[in-house]
């Protein structure tokens, strides 16, 4: 009987101990200090100034198929911009057909968010857009967004064709496309045949400086019916 | 130039040199080499540990001389250090070079010393590398200290100047392994100067031949100084032997095919003319042309009564020999030019003094000074551009393998991500990059507790456990199948043509975007 009383008295204590156990185990724990490898020291790296004329991926771009009758429809077409007084070059360089990476072939727009807009002077089914920002040096242009519309002010009927502004830095929405390194191949964008007269291309500086550049923009399409 | 005017003008130039070097010291992102030196210094500061590395990173003087600067600013750990504290040391040494020029006043003349000081104060190369946390400007200071002491010894042979020369020689050796080239050039220049003085006296004046006792005294001073530094102040005796075997390593490196091999005229072309794309023109041609005049003056006899012998011949021989030696060595980086370019700067000062001496009429002197003022203005403008506008731009000829300003955006992004991560600065960061692509990350991520560095991704464990991964392009190509869809990736420029990728795990990225809103 005495034993039973003792067990009965000890039972709540045992329950309390069992409940407290995880906490006391937690209290006995110490933070695991990770031993991560330290950096190794190394001498001066190569001073790279070579022109970026090779394709970074090492593989040429594969063939891109478009509907029969597709033609270059942007050549010599008028160009407007958020910066109508470029720092270097002329806005007409964007559609002049010259794609050389050398000085004298690109237009430089001011720092931060800027756009250029090509007026195709008619509605087209857009089948391919090729963009060369700058390719005499390896760089990445930030927040590249390409839109198409029949409204020259891009207020109504705007379709976003490409957007790699993943943190919505320029306020046109979060984009899912990836950033890329500029090469002499240019960036091929698939507009999937949408109909539009105006193409607007945004950027927001690049990895070398805050300025925005365009060597050429080519729009391929067929007249809209 | 009378003594009072010299003192006043020289003082103004000296103060100007200090201000020029100290302004905006944190403007330029840390160079790969600076970051290596800074992290090494951090270990010395925190743990009192330093061992001379015979394979790389030069001598110990930079680290030990940084200690008092860090203590003065109450910096006791790597995390507490900043760019200004570290770069303060070379900046002050870069300005103190002007004071060492005063050792040459006897013989060179006040006008020549003043203009040499003025040119050293504003030369783009001199100012740019004075703001660099590497050994170079300390080395130039010690080289000039040795040349100045040797000159004083030639004029007034004494134990004092022998010991001073020895001290500077020891510090040179404790700073850079290339000091052996300078020892050879300075020694040969000394012999040639004495021989020439005997064969064709510039002035009827006696130049002392170094005696054995004084030479021995100087040698002892040099050895003791070097031993103290290389042994980490008598804690690492192997450091002495390492400093000797290092010479073999550096000798092999200087001639071996590698990433810093340049043709012989590289340095002279860099100084004479450089233009990149639409960038401005860069030239230190003014100094080169005036130095050529100074070289001619070294062989024009002075016949004035009581004239001192000029150090022009000594500096001429030194400059010629050291320029030739550094040009012949295939391994070239732009900051290596400073130790011989200093000779050109002194000769340029001598050239100005000579020009003003030989021009007969006052209005011709004024004309010379006006042309000189225009040249100095241009040099100063270039220096301003090099240090405050084009400090990280490859259009600047002294920018070499420099970290891009864009890299700082990566650092800011990592800071912003840590601010929204529950572990904050304890957030795990995995850096999987080649060795050359790793730096200066360890400097910029020094406040993070859990950063691991790997060159091989297979050694880095499960990558997805880290909310932030930093890779170079090569590793990115390998890791993309693993990271795609799980991480948001961003490109940042490390150096021109070299990119780093910041991979942010989707959960952290979404949290970041939410907080940003």
Short descriptors:
heterodimer, A: 225 residues, alpha+beta, two-stranded antiparallel sheet, 1 helix, 28% strand, B: 517 residues, mainly alpha, five-stranded mixed sheet, 22 helices, 61% helix, globular
Q: Give the N-to-C terminal Cα separation of chain B.
A: 67 Å
* H-E string of chain B: HHHHHHHHHHHHHHHHHHEHHEEHEEH
Question: On the 0-100 scale, what is the average pLDDT of chain A?
Answer: 84
Number of helices of chain B: 22
**Which percent range fits the helix content of chain A?**
10-25%
Strand-pairing-aware structural class of chain A? alpha+beta
Basic shape of chain B: globular
Helix content of chain B: 55-70%
| C-alpha-based Rg of chain A, rounded | 30 Å
**Largest interface: chains, residues each:** A-B, 35 and 50 residues
Q: What is the count of β-strands of chain A?
A: 10
Describe this structure in words.
The complex is a heterodimer of chains A (225) and B (517). Chain A is globular, with a radius of gyration of 30 Å. In chain A, strands 1, 2, 4, 5, 6, 7, 8 and 10 form an eight-stranded antiparallel β-sheet that branches. A two-stranded antiparallel ribbon of chain A has the order 3-9. With 225 residues, chain A is an alpha+beta fold. Chain A has one helix spanning 2-28, and strands at residues 71-72, 79-81, 107-109, 113-132, 145-149, 159-163, 187-189, 195-204, 212-214, 216-223. Mean pLDDT of chain A is 84; it is low at 16-25 and 49-55. Chain B is mostly helical and 517 residues long. In chain B, 61% of the residues lie in helices and 6% in strands. Chain B has helices at 3-22, 32-47, 61-72, 83-101, 105-108, 110-122, 124-130, 136-155, 159-173, 179-199, 212-230, 238-255, 266-272, 285-297, 312-328, 338-358, 362-388, 407-420, 435-438, 441-444, 473-483, 506-516, and strands at residues 429-432, 451-454, 468-472, 487-495, 498-505. Chain B has a five-stranded mixed β-sheet. The longest helix of chain B has 27 residues, at 362-388. Chain B starts with a helix and ends with a helix. The model of chain B has no long low-confidence stretch (mean pLDDT 92). Chains A and B meet through loops of A and α2, α19, β2, β4 and α22 of B.
